[in-house]
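Justification of computing resources. Each target in the renewal requires a structure prediction run like the one illustrated here; the chain below, 286 residues long, is used simply to show the kind of job we budget for.
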Amino acid sequence: MIVKNLATRIFKPIIPEAEGRNMVIAGLAIVSIILFMAIFADIIAPYNPTKFSGKPLSPPSPSNLMGTDNLGRDVFSRVIHGSRVVLMVVFSASAVSMAIGVPIGLISGYFGGKLDRAISMIMDSMYAFPSLILAIAIAAVLGPSVFNAVIAISVVYVPTYFRMTRGQTLSLKSRLFVEAARASGAGNLRIMRKYIFPNLVTTVIVVFSLSIADAILTEAGLSFLGFIVSAPTPDWGFDLSSGRPYLPSGYWWMITFPGAMVMILALGFALIGEGLSELYAPGRER
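Resulting structure tokens:
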């Protein structure tokens, strides 16, 4: 309740009054907490996430809030520090895919013709693959590392930005204000940069939020399979994989808390994306 009230006071003045506003505020509250946790992990975490801090496989207790893993490391400290890898990978991958997909979609939709058909065919063939399967294939070829994981995830989501940008551009380029700009002598680059792209910004932000939510699950899947970090680096997906063999023996806390964090962070960005899509839905009166 305290967090919700604080988030409402902070974000309410900058978010327009409309349906979807509460979802955006709730999502921003969740993401802000986890971002704060990642930035100040060294201060918040009670123990070194890679060092022995208690009896192995101890259940949650006052000294170890989320218990310890099979090596006696504090699960709570690993969850806090693991947020850094997750956020770094998904933000970097989403930014790269947006930086590639949006310009390609803008050029393809604006010029059309054979160029549009060729690019669309390539993007559609990539989009046909399930995102996690394609990311695993790319990561397997490149090898396990954070940098390669960013490349793998960014490639997966380029078609998402491309399809959104291309569709909007096809609609916008026939509008009267674009025709007027063309009649006044404006070049193609100027029209795309000054008249079409500004009308895509809100849609790009919505897609960015939703793609991050999906990228979090993809990152967790790659990490679970060992394509991002190696022991003893803390990461939610990697810790899920490490704790899985101990679940049948009743040591539930090793996978429950990292798994819950993956779900909560993905939920936060999903709420932001869904809320923004309602706030800035086409045709909504402003």
